[in-house]
């Protein structure tokens, strides 16, 4: 029996130091000290020995058991010291490289929106907001677009019920503000708008910024002046713009503003479809019919309004040719701004 004990010790002595993982340590523990472990089985045979011998062998077996346990524990500590557990316990390698944290940046649309807002705040405008889930009344009716008016087809509307829709433009904010406040007003209203449309230049959700000004003696000249200032600040001093007659039910007269194509500088290309010009916004003098919905006296007050697509001007400013890039959160795209 003594020689069997020695044999076990020799084996353990060579196995324990070569263990490399905590699993291996646990396997060795089971092999010697488990329910069917070699040392456990040997201890079971003790009862068959004569009392004297039993005492001596019993003592040596216990010593061996403690020795194996101590060595296993020691080895386990060593292994843990090298892993994450070790870090927690304060063993760490101060020469290792740290993980670099990635710093985010402002989304290009937010950036453009903030820039536009800043320009108009600089001209004395105040920021207002309205709901994205809107009543037909504010989105259409009070903007002089009655039911069955053909202008409703210009915008593919998402209907929630017959009367509740996702707003198709930011113009309903004009009505909400004018209902509550008396002139003079100088407001911009940025926000999300929704149209049932999707391709490289259209997204079912996009951003607009509305602007309007109501006071005594506001003229088309004021509208031109403000929008010219804006274009020159946003796109640069050397960018030409033109006012092209247009139609909106809530403005009269109406105009769309075009800027000289930022890609070809006017000679004609694919982006401007050969015209040399790019449309950036709709605008006009607020129609007296709109004033009558909000109970403003059109003899006393006049005003202008304009509405601009944020994605559109962001695409033109940065030469982005697919609107979907703004929403896909591809870091390779977002990191460029
Ligand atoms: N709401 C119009 C649109 O979305 C833009 C516009 C706003 C036109 C204000 C005139 C005045 O197309």
What would your notes on this structure say?
This protein is α+β, with helices and mostly antiparallel strands. It has two domains: 2-88; 108-334, 2-Layer Sandwich (BirA Bifunctional Protein, domain 2), CATH 3.30.930. It is built from twelve helices and nine strands. It has helices at residues 2-15, 22-33, 38-44, 51-82, 84-88, 108-122, 136-139, 172-180, 220-235, 288-293, 310-318, 331-334; strands at residues 126-127, 133-135, 164-166, 185-194, 205-215, 241-248, 251-260, 277-286, 302-309. The strands form two sheets. The protein has a seven-stranded mixed sheet, sandwiched between helices. A two-stranded antiparallel ribbon has the order 2-3. β6 and β7 (251-260) form a beta hairpin. It is rod-shaped and about 125 Å long. The termini are far apart. Bound molecules: phenylalanine. The site of phenylalanine has 10 residues, from β8 and β9. Phenylalanine binds next to β8 and β9.
């Amino acid at each position: 029996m003594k020689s069997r004990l020695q044999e076990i010790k020799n084996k353990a002595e060579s196995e324990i130091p070569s263990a490399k993982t905590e699993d291996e340590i646990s396997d060795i523990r089971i092999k010697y000290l488990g329910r069917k472990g070699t040392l456990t089985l040997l201890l079971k045979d003790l009862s068959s020995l004569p009392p004297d011998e039993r005492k001596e062998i019993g003592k040596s077996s216990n010593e061996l058991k403690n020795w194996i346990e101590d060595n296993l524990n020691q080895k386990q500590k060593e292994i843990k010291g090298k892993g994450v557990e070790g870090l927690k316990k304060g063993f760490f390698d101060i020469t290792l490289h740290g993980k670099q944290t990635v710093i985010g940046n402002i989304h290009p649309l937010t950036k453009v929106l903030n820039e536009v807002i800043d320009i108009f705040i600089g001209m004395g405008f105040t920021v207002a907001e309205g709901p994205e889930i809107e009543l037909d009344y504010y989105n259409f009716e009070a903007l002089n677009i009655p039911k069955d008016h053909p202008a409703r087809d210009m915008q593919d509307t998402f209907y929630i019920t017959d009367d509740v829709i996702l707003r198709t433009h930011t113009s309903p904010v004009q009505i909400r503000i004018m209902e509550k406040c008396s002139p003079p007003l100088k407001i911009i209203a940025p926000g999300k708008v929704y149209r049932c449309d999707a391709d490289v230049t259209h997204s079912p959700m996009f951003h607009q910024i509305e602007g309007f000004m109501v006071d005594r003696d506001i003229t088309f000249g004021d509208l031109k002046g403000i929008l010219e200032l804006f274009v020159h600040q946003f796109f640069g001093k050397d960018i030409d713009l033109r006012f092209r007659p247009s139609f909106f039910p809530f403005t009269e007269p109406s105009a769309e503003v075009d800027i000289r194509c930022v890609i070809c500088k006017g000679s004609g290309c694919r982006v401007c479809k050969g015209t040399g010009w790019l449309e950036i916004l709709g605008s006009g003098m607020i129609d007296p019919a709109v004033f009558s919905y909000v109970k403003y006296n059109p003899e006393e007050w006049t005003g202008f309004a304009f509405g601009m697509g944020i994605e559109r001007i962001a695409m033109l400013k940065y030469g982005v040719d697919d609107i979907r890039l703004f929403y896909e959160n591809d870091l390779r795209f977002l990191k460029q701004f």
